[in-house]
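Customer ticket, subject: "Can you confirm the structure for Xanthine dehydrogenase?"

Message body: Hello, I'm evaluating your service for our small team and ran a test protein. I'd like someone to confirm that this is what the system normally returns, since I don't have a reference to compare against.
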Amino acid sequence: MNHLDPIRHVRGESQYLDDVPVQHGTLYAAVVESPLAHGRLLAIDATAALALPGVVRVLTAADIPGTNQIGGIVPDEPLLAEGHVHFRGQPVALVLAESEHAAHAALALVRVEVEPLPIITDPRVAAAAGELLVPPRTFQIGDSGAAWAGCTHVFAGVAESGGQEHLYIETQGAYAFPTEMGGVRIISSTQGPTAVQRHTAHVLGLGMHQVEVDVTRLGGGFGGKEDQATPWGALAALGAFVTRRPVKLALDRMADLRMTGKRHPYSSDFKIGLDAELKIVAYEVTFYQNGGAAADLSPAVLERTLFHCTNAYFIPNVTATAYSCRTNLPPNTAFRGFGGPQGMFVMESALACAAEALGLETAELQRRNLLREGDLFPYRQPAEMCHAEQAWDTAAAKFDLPGRRREVAAFNEAHRWQKKGLALMPICFGISFTKTAMNQARALVHIYTDGSVGVSTGAVEMGQGVNTKIAQVAARTLGIPLHRIKVESTNTTRVANTSPSAASATADLNGKATELACLALRERLLRLAATELRMDYEGLHIEHEQVLAAGKPADTNWEKLVSAAYWQRVSLSENAHYATPDLHFDATTNQGHPFAYHVYGTALTTVRVDCRRGTYVVEAVELAHDFGQSLHQQIDRGQIEGGVVQGIGWMTMEDLAYNTEGRLLSNSLNSYKIPDLYAAPATLAVHFLDTPGHPLAVLRSKAVGEPPLMYGLGTYFALRAAVRAFQRHTPLPFSAPMTPEKVLVSLYPEFVGPRETVAVAATRG
Ligand code: MTE
Ligand code: HPA
Ligand code: MOS
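Agent reply: Thanks for trying us out. I re-ran your input and got the following:
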């Protein structure tokens, strides 16, 4: 069964925002940015810009008819700056012009006067100054304080992980049209159509029913368009509302890099205690999240860091505290894994720290402490249908871990200037929005009188293949072929009050709603067939468009049945609602059952370092992953491959740098490098674990979007192992990304003074 999209993609037929035919009278918008990272906004003077031919309007906060506020969780984010500016690139004004060229030419002519205020870019400095976006959170189980006394080994350290740019191929943008009665219709490149609708209505002082948002597909989102598509949709809508003309706003790449938030950098302290059998007895961790200038999704990301702070391990005594720190950077936001990877990086660093000190393979500690059935997570949900050990053991056997170890050792023995490193990376990721209420979805299914079917849900296609999966669910449930199904655009007037397409839960939530709608339609049609054929309803099925009675073809088929239903005035449409059952979480005690289920897997990573240059290649990532009963192995394999490579990028080469003035230094694709084909592992082997899936996964096909990113952490630890094979006792701070510069510095500590090492680390925001 083919993925629905690739054929259209390779023929250039897929419609993205920029493929929407431009309507007559369209104005082009460009955004004036704050020139400083923090200050009092004294004046905006647009006189010179307005004198430029083609420039129609320059809008500021004063032109907003409703409320100048787009904060998703905390109302701390104005759409256009008012009174103060809090980060470089913060939208200050909106230029509207007859051409894109005129709009951009006008930007430099808008004078923005700002009185500077002190700038903070470091989360620990922010925390010390009391600059927190929300109060700190602590997850606790057992009594770590009391447990240290019983530990044979205790280790402590610091771990730092950097930010990450989403680099969706399609930059942020929206196209807004004025509609009758003062409303707007917005075509938006967003993962959250309802978020764009809600905030736009608020900004314009309209009811949500006056704002329609439509999404065909995104050229990638990766979390960067969960909340951060909203400003561009709302700004385009503001322009359309004020001028009563269509307004198109699309950020160019460098503006997108400057103005939008990214994965949160974290700086963390850990302490880990083991008993004589190397079981982890206690773990204490403090996370300092670099939240940027407004809360955005940071509190939810912070919470998921805590949920995943013990990764795939059972630890009886845990105290984990997290601070969401306000800095003068663009508000950081959702990014594949949603804080989970940052939490897991610290856990893996703690294990590597202990193993290196004890002279053991980290894998020894990892394997011994994997979760088992019934073990409690620090938030008190038990691990159920737990495949952590199965995934590890299968990966170790399937990819010959002992053999790989021997190869690496033999290679390192034989080569002076090349060293290999090996690491295992088990993962465990919880599936559900951690905010319980968000775990709901709806589907609207129409059967047309010719037997073709239109399906609308809240799911946004962003390359992850959710439309194909939803079509598969409809086709399987109705017993008809895939070509009969069309998955419609995601539109707020057809399916309302949607959760964003995020948390890897899109196919589960919207697929389950689709399944419910199709089950209701199938039952309705088969009851009609039972009456017409004078047969028992219980024995009837539809397969390949044929109605079967007790497994044998009956005297009717899909088309006839649909037609009969219409003429008998039986409804051929159904609207279904799905809410994940049995979820609960108490955010005051930080206990409950927040996840429908967990996804497990283990990856084995082999790298080779060129010890003269500090450069390296990822030779192989070989993994066993728990897909359950995969609906579509090609799509799921694609998600693994993309996730692994994106994770490797975060851990190795994506070096996001802001200076102390809050200016993005890695501000183009010349200075910010993401993995290309040459950086991808030469071997990327995916073994589909034999697991039953989970009843709360759509047709038992488990969520796959985010978990594989975390396999990328293995590359960091494999590189550490390779460096240690060259320089056993070199100082090696836990600091990602492990760029070739850092590798080189750690290979030759005698040539690089400690100050320079610090300088390399300090450029990270
Ligand atoms: N895959 C592609 N090709 N493009 C994307 O933008 N986003 C990722 C992941 N895989 C993304 C992707 C993220 S962050 C999430 S949460 C999930 O897909 C969202 O889709 P799902 O819920 O259908 O898995
Ligand atoms: N994951 C991803 N996105 C989210 C979540 C989550 O748990 N909660 C709110 N948005
Ligand atoms: Mo994904 S970070 O939940 O959009």
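A couple of notes from the result: The first strand starts at residue 27 and ends at 33. The two ends are 45 Å apart (CA to CA). Feel free to reply with more questions.
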